[in-house]
Amino acid sequence: MKRLFNIVLPVFMLLGVVTTSCATTVHTRPSNDIVITKIRHPKMIVHNNIKYYRSRGVWYLKNNRGYRKVAAPVGARVKTLPRGSKNVKIRGVKYYRCNGVHYKKSGERYIIVTI
């Protein structure tokens, strides 16, 4: 009985670790027409005298009801890339991509570009 217990216990512990490590977090992105009342840790970027807000790589404009998702402002300069940005090379030029937005390094900042 003790020998059976020594075999069965590690198997159950292993299964517990395997099943708990498969958990994932799903982040949803709002559509363009939806106004969100709160966004998590927004970073404000001013471009052409318009205040844009970036959170998790998604760009927003603020209005009196909340935040509305918009396209990234081409030509805007940002200090940091969003989390999850990937290096991509297009026609020999190095870019960074996150959520369909391309960034190009310029000095110590990154410029939003169209490809």
TrEMBL record:
Residues 1-23 form the signal peptide. Keywords: Signal. The keyword Signal applies. This is Surface layer protein A domain-containing protein. It comes from Aquimarina algicola.
